Amino acid sequence: MGLDITKDIVQLPESDKKEVELFLNRDALLVNSKNDSINEKEKFIQEFNYLNFLDDVEKDRVATVIFDLNVNKYRNNHKVITSYKNKIKEDRREERKRNYYNPYYNIHDYVESGYFVNVSKFQKDRCMKILSCIYYAIEELGGEVKNDFSLKIRDELVTIEIEELKDKVKHELTKEEAQQLIKYEDEKKNWSYASKPTIRKYDYVYNGKLKITFGTRNYIKDTDKVKLEDRLGDIIIKLYEKSEGVKIQRLEREERERVQREEKQREEEIRNRKKNEANKVKELVNMAEDYKIACEIRNYIQAVSNQSKSSEETKEWIIWANKKANWLDPIIDEEDELLGKREHKDSMDNKNSKLDKYGSYFGWY
Question: Which of 148, 137, 131 is nearest to 84 (CA)?
Fold first, then answer.
């Protein structure tokens, strides 16, 4: 409002919190605030004020699924999760086979790779249960779950990532690190070039809180009061919003590509028109040159005919020369019994080159 607030600014107290999570009106918890009565369900569907880019029928379907959604609704893990677990078991078996004769191999040293690489073993089953619930709900709404854990929602591909958050804690020295420090202190007393061991100051340990990420800086996570299990409805809404965003980006990309294609096509058409026009001009010049030569030959024939005395040989030559003039003239375009048709539109160099080749051993030209 243009008011001066410089005197109202106060220094905030120090805090150890790095993030403060605020629930806006549109992010209100959808699941905790409802009960299972029929009237409440109808009211929830009727007052569902999200995903306004959907038509009313699809919007009601989403609201219906969200209202009934909870992690205990589905007994078994989704088939994609089950397939993933079976693959991990097979990978572990294969690793044990490869290291069967390795005396230093420890089965507990196995490091799992894949979708749940950023989740501790203590939270993995919980992750799978949450994701299975989401996957079943998406399929119930007509979507599809891919083997790489991506989702196809409204014909758009959406990816999500799940991870367990970590706390930054002060590193506690291990027995080996303590021995390294003692050795360093002893060496430092005798040699100035003793190398101090590198020991990290902090560790990052899993804290049991899960986080689902829908894209850059777009996520839902556990808090001290609310778990992901209580925000399944919000997760479904975020997935639909992400699919709409992907759709908008795809349409914009396709529109840009269409404009680029049309522009390239237009430029190609202009290039072709210019090329065709240039060729036609060249052909016109070549035909005019043939006509000019034919006219000059006729003038020469007329000059020869004007002589008072003409021999039989001259008369025969005049007849022959007139035929050649008619052969050269693009208007008459007479075919010669030996030379055939004259290519009037061709360049003079090519036409002369063709004449040079007649009678040579390469006469097939």
Answer: 148
Give the helix ranges, DSSP H, for the chain: 38-46, 56-67, 79-98, 124-140, 175-190, 232-305, 312-328, 348-357
Q: Residue type for 167, please?
A: D
CB neighbourhood size of 329 (10 A) = 20
Q: What are phi and psi of 131, to 5 degrees?
A: -65, -40
Token pair recorded at residue 351? 């036409």
Q: 269-285: per-residue pLDDT in tens?
A: 999 999 999 999 999 99
Pairwise CA distance, residues 111 & 220, whole Å: 27
DSSP state of 17: -
CA distance 184 to 182: 5
Nearest Cα neighbor of 354 from 299, 307, 286, 253 is: 286
Separation between Cα atoms, residue 45 and residue 43, nearest integer Å: 5
Q: What is the C-alpha R_g of the chain?
A: 43
How far is residue 41's CA from residue 15's CA, in Å, rounded to a whole number? 42
CA–CA dist 141, 234 (Å, integer)? 15
Cβ-in-10-Å burial (0-12, 13-18, 19+) of 243 comes to buried
CA nearest 151: which of 88, 217, 239, 225? Answer: 239
β-partners of residue 204 are 168
Q: Encode pLDDT of 193-212 as tens digits.
A: 778 888 889 999 999 999 99
Half-sphere exposure of 311 (CA within 13 A, CB side): 3
Neighbours of 317 (CB within 10 A): 14
Per-residue three-class SS string for 55-115 = CHHHHHHHHHHHHCCCCCCCCCCCHHHHHHHHHHHHHHHHHHHHCCCCCCCCHHHCCCCCC
Give the whole-angstrom CA distance, residue 48 versus residue 42: 10
Q: What is the pLDDT of residues 87-116, one digit of tens each?
A: 988 888 888 888 878 877 777 666 777 888
